[in-house]
Amino acid sequence: MCGIVGYTGRDQAVTYLLEGLRTLEYRGYDSAGVEVVGADGALHGVKCAGRVAALAERCETANLVGTTGIAHTRWATHGAPTDRNSHPHRDCSGRIAIVHNGIIENFRELRSYLQRNGHELASETDSEVIAHLIEEAWRGPAKGDLVAAVRNACRRLEGSWAIAAVCADAPGEVVCARNGSPLVVASAEGGAYAASDVTPLASVTSHVIQLENGQIARLESNGRVTVYDEDGAPVAHPATLDIDWDASAATLGGYSDFMAKEIAEQPEAIERLLGGRLGEKGIYLDELSMSQADLAAIDRVYLIACGTSYHVSLIARTLIQTWAKVQVVCDYASEFNYEQDVMVTPNTLCVIITQSGETADTLTAARRMRGMGCRVFAITNVLGSTAARESDGTLYVQAGPEVCVASTKAYTAQMVAAALLALRLAEARGEMDHAEVERHYRDLCALPNLIREVIGRSWQDKQAAPLFRRAHSALFLGRGVNSTTAYEGALKLKEISYLHAEAYPAGEMKHGPIALLEPGFPVVAIVPEDRVHDKTVSNIQEVIARGAVCVAVATDGDEAVASLVEHVLWIPPVPDELLVPIVAVVHLQLLARYVARARGCDVDKPRNLAKSVTVE
Ligand code: F6R
């Protein structure tokens, strides 16, 4: 949440800063702003509510000449998304400016303290106090050293932060600090760079430094980057990360939107993840970093995640319980963190599932589990993310950068990763022999082509979209593993089309929600060929009898369903019914996208959302 960038070097800062904001905009888009240390020795800034494009327009007519600067794209937490609350924030002198991602929990006390001491605060944000605390330190104990001033200010903060600061009296310097919120810095051709994640840096370097909590970095215009620890001592070997993808992976590459691109990338992502995972000894999952004996001893698995990743955990639970016969508990991270009845044994494995690897609730849950002595295994997409760095083992799903706020390719790749974990556990516990593991692995390897087929049938989703265009609400129904597909389909639809959608296990309809139905009410039923097919067909009959307009996701050739419903989204037969969710959901992703477009919504940047949820 919130994206920050910083630059100092030989080029005009505003060029890199705006480009950086464009690539980070998926982290928040309530407002944007930029501040440059001008050649005239003063700060020059532009900031406004709205998107980076609006900021860029304003920058064209502003005097932003200077080779050092910082910029921010905001997801509002404290204070409405107004011009005034946009970052960067300045101190009283107007010579220090900061951008911040995170939450300053003690900002009320700090505001009162600063106001009592004569500071004038111009915004309602928690972040602004940082600029004034740096100002106090700059004038006082730091004696004009920006690193010391930032360190001094950070000591008074409680909460989470990634900060970049500039000072008109320290030209050619950007100082960054991290505690809890992600921040990377790099020395590269043309200068020194900072950003919330590697996306804006991929075009200038393939090697970045990942700041650790408590560290502060000084970026200098000759490209030098120096990292200091909490006590101000230089860190000889800061943590580094090699960016293994091309900058073009985060561009549209001919697609009209990132959602379309990322839906299309799903088959390749799964192929990458599965490649070379089966050997003579079975499933290769060294990322777990656990011995055969430790794996065999696991007696409980906790799966913790948020949002779409939580839906992955529901599928993972079925796969692990069915294949490996281990008891699994799934929990929303935000709920888990305040539960009192968490039961762990010495052999409990905690698995966190997080595309970004930066979701604050999930990270807090993982820390809590580690605190209770649990091993934590992360399934994530982002290389070097906090989840990866703080876990005992990490499986990267390698889906490539996911830019669209609504997760698609990470969802299917994470489900496949969960299947690999389930197989590895089944094998280690002696629940499957090699032949069985091989059969399941082959079934997984069939998925990319099945998904290709569904993507090739996107015209079916396009045809179904008008049924939802004027609706006020929609219902998604499924049974067994596909009740989760229904949850995910409803989430996709509501988040990008702003159409209320609710998901229910199909058999539960008659216990209440069926009262919602009236003629024309759209219902999406997931009804593949599986053991609960006939039961689900009965539920479809019940909703149609109440006048609902039913769209079904059904298996090729299912005339019984086709003759009942208004519209069918066909899927090819899937070799294992437990894997159907990985194929069927692709129709629901496509459907949500077509409905959102028909309703004139921005599918990549839905309102009120951000890609990386770094606040609890
Ligand atoms: C929905 C979506 C979110 C995320 C959730 C967790 O399309 O993307 O629900 O799944 O915010 O994010 P990660 O997986 O990064 O922890």
TrEMBL record:
One Gene Ontology BP term is: fructose 6-phosphate metabolic process
Instruction: Decide whether keyword Lipoprotein is in the record.
Output: no
The reaction(s) annotated as catalysed by this protein in its Swiss-Prot or TrEMBL entry are:
D-fructose 6-phosphate + L-glutamine = D-glucosamine 6-phosphate + L-glutamate
Keyword Transmembrane in the entry? The reply is no
Per UniProt, the keywords (alphabetical) are: Aminotransferase, Cytoplasm, Glutamine amidotransferase, Repeat, Transferase
Segments crossing the lipid bilayer = none
Q: Which residues form a coiled coil?
A: none
Give every SIS domain span: 290-431, 464-606
Per its UniProt record, what Pfam families does this chain match?
Answer: GATase_6, SIS
Question: Where's the active site on this chain?
Answer: 2 (nucleophile), 611 (for fru-6p isomerization activity)
Catalytic activity, EC: 2.6.1.16
Q: Name one GO molecular function term.
A: carbohydrate derivative binding
The UniProt entry's GO CC annotations, sorted and at most eight, read: cytosol
What region holds the Glutamine amidotransferase type-2 domain?
2-222
Subcellular location, record wording: Cytoplasm
Assembly, in brief, is: Homodimer.
Reported function: Catalyzes the first step in hexosamine metabolism, converting fructose-6P into glucosamine-6P using glutamine as a nitrogen source.
State what protein this is by name. Answer: Glutamine--fructose-6-phosphate aminotransferase [isomerizing]
The source organism is Candidatus Olsenella pullistercoris
Primary gene name: glmS
